[in-house]
Amino acid sequence: MTPSATLSYLLNYELLGKGVLRVQRWRDERKLRAHHGKPDDPLNPPLVRTARMKELMSRHYLEGRYANGVKKVAWVTSGAPIEVLRALDFVLIYPENHAALCGARKKAVDLSVEAENAGYSRDICSYARTDIGAMLSGRTPVGRLPKPDLLVACTNICQTVLYWYRVLAAHFDVPLIVIDTPFLYQAASDHQVAFVKQQLEEAIPVIERVAGRSLSWRRLRGVAERSKTAAELWLEIMDRARNRPAPMTAFDGFINMGPIVDLRGEPETIVFYRELLAELDARIKKGVGAIKRERKRVLWDNLPIWHQIGHLSRTLGRRGVNVVVSTYTYAWGELAPMMDASRPLDTAARVYLHPILNRSTGDKLRTMEKMVKDFALDGVILHSDRSCKPYSLGQIDQRDRLVHERGVPALLLEADHNDPRAYAVEQGDARLEAFMEMMESAN
Amino acid sequence: MPEPIALPSRREAIARARARGQRVAAVLPIHAPRALLTACNVHSVEVWGPPGVDPEIGASHFQAYTCAIVRNATSFLLAGHLDDHDAVLIPHTCDAMQGMASVLVDFVRPKMPVLTLYLPRGRRASDETYLVAELRRLGRDLTALSGVAPTDEALHAALDREAAADDAVAGLWRDRAGLALSDRAFFTLLRTREFLDAEAFVEVARTAPRGERKQRGIPVMLSGIAPEPMEIFDALDEAGAHVVADDLAGVSRRIYPRVEEPDPFRRLARSLLGAAPDPTLGQPIPERVAMVRRRMEESGARGIVVYNPKFCEPELFYLPLLAKGLAEAGLPLLHVEHEMTESLGAQTRTRIEAFVETLRGAQ
Question: How far is B158 from chain A, CA to nearest CA, in Å?
């Protein structure tokens, strides 16, 4: 810890930053409350609590900006078991979330080009390209990303993160902890769970060495408890979309999922999701839906197309189509019942082995079929994401089964979650139009 | 035209295995425990694509951005070319291979069982413990297929034979200058390891024609997944280059270290975990750069051609830093991506010619 870094951290983050962001949030909330929307807008006014999410995420990146020299920093994958890191006060940076943020702010292409110029192929994941571009150029819409002291990659979302983090490890010359989660073609076996647990046990001394202090198991249990509470709340929030009209869209879910990914285990995350849940309940009570005229309800499979969220929600909304839930956002809540904070490592081994992306293609189909039933859905949009092979491979058969065996209209929409160069808007709109007609004729 | 050499064919290898009473498994890339299959009385025949099939059949299950090995292998299976096999084994090599295994298990459901193997991505105590358990689990699946449980003695013996075959691959490279084979013929011979049992391969290696090496020119190393289509050797020959070393996933990356260990499953696990640094195993990039550089320097290779099917993400992630590390040692790299078809394409040939010309100019 250096005195100048500490001073800068206290001044810019603790004193000024937090205060400015709080004031900004009050302003945003006031604006959102006063927002009645345009008459021709198919969407109802956005959720007011989104302002709170923006404050939390901005604060998170602001702390990261001034963290080097004050706190230890770990860059982690979105599916990484972070509870031990959080219990040891690491500032956690999620490159995937950062890349998504760049995508949503239309900065991803410029950064990807930086990576492509350094030899990284356009055929690798666009999140990775975006972040490698940010790493090489030092450019980011969040001001500055702190250098990591430690990297943690968990393969429960893909093998891509392993290669990507090998690149980061070579660049930053810092330790990389790999938590390797065998893919579950069938139910998890004892040796698979034991493997993940043993890796977590092996990781603790490495993390303690970087942190410069020992893990408090009492603190770890506290973090695990808060992670579970937040995941339960997130699941409740997702499940509110079972109401008709649904009080939120999957696009709202994509936007508000930042804290459950990046700030899991923090008390503020629980407060935020409790407030969001209350706002949704108020909407339900008043019969207010996320879109004005909900006629058809749809499931979204795979990551969002970050650069098209606004366009897609309005294009679909104009036809009365509400994308009420997604397999992607649901993934951060569906495992909450498996969590048991009193046995943090045993639980983590099981939970982090089971994300949807680490389960078989048949299991994903069953998950989608259950969601179609539980949420009373009229169709499924499967985003065939050329940047996310583990999520996308299997979708052709999943779509065929949904259509031919379940009679559920389903569309395979070719795109890329972060690279707009791989998505043709007009062609996509035409396919969505045909899909909406298919849904109309199905009923 | 490459000179003809008498080598056993896949069909002959399968027929011989059948005659010995063995079951036959089609094995997908890359790292598979051949010794375990043998000890369970299962003969392995590898499927690296292959070229020459209609990829559109596989396209009914996999998007166009899926690697050609997965699309072609699925097409090959669906077209009935694996109908005479008793099982398909798909090691977890990458996300694409994972998707293929899962789609076959859940949706395609071929008439033969689909077996899987998850290879851990580290070399820690936990990786070894896990891999031992995973190999035992696979052993049980193979026993269910063949009715033969692997005894410790049988597995040790099979491991000894595989180690001898690995030595034979290394020996062929050591003796390369004294083998009267073009590069294409030499790699055709090396690739018989994909379908021959270990003893048969050792015999093929032992009887490889000796004499004056048939190719001269700029020495290069060949890297990538598999030399498929094998026209790459003709293109290199025509450009005035010859291959003096390889870092192919299907060849030299699978020369495993010899391990002494009383428990044969642990011995097999340690051997697999000791494989040369390979992107699909997620090993550190600096280790991989150092290994490739050392082998290029030892073999006298002046440049490296990395030959990959399109969309091979593990390879693509490692390439920029590999190229940079080698460039620092004055060793240029050419990356050639190709569709797994019969023809190499004029543009690729031109790039290879230009690359070899650059190497010649730097001489």
Answer: 25
Q: Interhelix angle for A160-172 vs A126-137, to 10°?
A: 10
Q: With CB atoms and an 8 Å threshold, state whether B319 touches A121.
A: yes
What's the CATH number of domain B214-361, 3.40.50.970, 3.40.50.11900, 3.40.50.280, 2.30.110.10?
Answer: 3.40.50.11900
Take residue A229 and report the two structure tokens written for it. 């509470």
Chain B residues closer than 8 Å to A169 by CB: 284-285
Architecture of domain B10-151: 3-Layer(aba) Sandwich (3.40)
Nearest by CB: B98 against A164, A169, A390: A390
**Domain range spanning residue A59?**
3-442
Query: How many structural domains are present in chain A?
Result: 1
In one-letter notation, the amino acid at residue A323 is: V
Say yes or no: do domains B10-151 and B214-361 share a fold: yes
CA distance A117 to chain B (A): 10
- How much is the ipTM here? 0.96
Report yes or no: B339 and B362 within 8 Å, Cβ to Cβ. Answer: no
Interface contact A183-B118, CB threshold 8 A: yes
3-class DSSP assignment, residue B188: helix
> Hey, where are the domains in chain B?
10-151, 214-361
Which tokens go with B264? 């044969």
pLDDT tens series, chain B, 363 aa = 445 678 999 999 999 999 999 999 999 999 999 999 999 999 999 999 887 788 888 889 999 999 999 999 999 999 999 999 999 999 999 999 999 999 999 999 999 999 999 999 999 999 999 999 999 999 999 999 999 999 999 999 999 999 999 999 999 999 999 999 999 999 999 999 999 999 999 999 999 999 987 667 999 999 999 998 899 999 999 999 999 999 999 999 999 999 999 999 999 999 999 999 999 999 999 999 999 999 999 999 999 999 999 999 999 999 999 999 999 999 999 999 988 776 888 899 999 999 999 999 886
Q: How far apart are CA A305 and CA B350, in angstroms?
A: 38
